[in-house]
Amino acid sequence: MTTPPEIAEALAQAIAAAAEVRGTTSPNPAVGAAILDSAGAIVGVGATQPPGGPHAEVMALADAGARAQGGTAVVTLEPCNHTGRTGPCSQALFDAGIQRVFYAQADPFPAAAGGAEFLALKGVEVHFLDVKIPTLQPWLNAVKSERPNVTLKFASTLDGFAAATDGSSQWITGAAARAFVHEDRSRRDAIIVGTGTALADNPSLTARSGDRLYPRQPRRVVVGKREIGAGNLQRLGFEQYPGIPEALKALWEEGCRDVLIEGGPTLAAAALRMDVVDNIQAYVAPALLGAGRSILNWPQETSISEIMRFETSAVQQLDNDVLIEMQRKGL
Amino acid sequence: MTTPPEIAEALAQAIAAAAEVRGTTSPNPAVGAAILDSAGAIVGVGATQPPGGPHAEVMALADAGARAQGGTAVVTLEPCNHTGRTGPCSQALFDAGIQRVFYAQADPFPAAAGGAEFLALKGVEVHFLDVKIPTLQPWLNAVKSERPNVTLKFASTLDGFAAATDGSSQWITGAAARAFVHEDRSRRDAIIVGTGTALADNPSLTARSGDRLYPRQPRRVVVGKREIGAGNLQRLGFEQYPGIPEALKALWEEGCRDVLIEGGPTLAAAALRMDVVDNIQAYVAPALLGAGRSILNWPQETSISEIMRFETSAVQQLDNDVLIEMQRKGL
Question: Domain spanning A5-137 has what CATH number?
């Protein structure tokens, strides 16, 4: 069936609501929901609250109140059928008198799946909307692979350098790109750097807007065996793991679903060689250095057959710079 | 004054007409013109014909016929006031009874300038439209610098490699990007490569769509002192110059205004170090090699203060690849 326009509009509002809570819901997915009354008017919108809080459907139902009776729910992910810290959303939708449910993504999590089936058995009309929800992709991939989704982020010149030969690098990209990085950090569960970066750059790994911290900060994670002495990380607190597998295992177990590797070149190369890079964010400055320090510290010679190809998922200009976002093929 | 909507629409048609003849007009600029009748309806459109043929205004007037009387002309470049192989366009507009002229770019060429003044003195209402015409940029820059406008083109991975360590490189970018390159070649006056590329790759330097040649082919130019033996270039014909300055001087004198340097890394680095690169076309594949042959063969170490910065003028996705177009700052 063709999606009715009021359902498409409700889905757009649900997606927007989900995008607003991205980064606040792990280990749960950032879901959005909209409720239409029996006449097709949007009467409630909601999104997943932090862990332990209500899910999107419950928020949207609360927003709609009695107008949900006989109405329609549009959700970015199949309503859960699982009693965890909150009751199942499929039951909540049924109890509110919802007669039709549209959802955009099947729940891949065995313990929570079955919501669509439950509702159909209760006589609710259930429709699947074949639409990709980018906000959900890291969570879906994490649940499938049983480790956090890994995004590798780097900033470089057009010729692939993160710094000049002498190590100087501030700043390759401009203010708009740097502001975008910080907003993005505030949406991630953790930021991971190697000991090389931690020792050389004394990073804070905070998410800032100007001089102010975003309300939500990612976990600060260092990978490698060298000791990190006094500095910003010691001051702010951080976790350290000997290698990437240990870090990803611990972060997964502690509820992280969406983590960012910010470098440097040795850690980035190690993550690629371990094949744990699911997404790449390449901030490319329209500049050339000619020679310098590569974004990847690669230990061996290459042939073109070894090229690591990704799929371009989004391209945007950030003032003078370009952000190219990619994902693993078939993700 | 605010540009009236019928003038904006006429300008859009003039720009589109100019874009169609890009690459066929050197040493003249690719100009477009539109004629509106006295009621404001577009009654004629035209663009510059190959050298010796009519200019855009004359083509548009011919298209409009008697309906030009009492009408308006909209031109992407100030009408010329110069009798060369053709008569001055300002005179032609006046003779056709045009009462208003809008033009988007002043003529920077001393011998041809003065068209706006001539028309104003004849009592024609003349308006300048403050709009950048990208199609004209290479020609304007060439006339200003008295050498052809130089666009440096390269295709690379995200980490700045044009080939793997062992030299293998086919293909880094995909079919859509390669097709775009060929269409673009058909719009350039010359394609320049170094002797290294000529000897290693046996290139044809032709502009092809599938197996067919575009009707218009750029000049094939090799820079460097090594002899080019039997191969595609010998078969198709080419010019050779010992260095970039000699090549640009000769090409300028022979009427080239818009040339493309396609590599390899030694020639690209030399052009950047001579500061003759006006535009860059970077075709970036969403792929990483880790190690390989850089797009630039740079002879020395660098510090961040030596970074060569450009301005991003356009970004587009070509299937899975990204084309970033840049220009010299302030161009």
Answer: 3.40.140.10
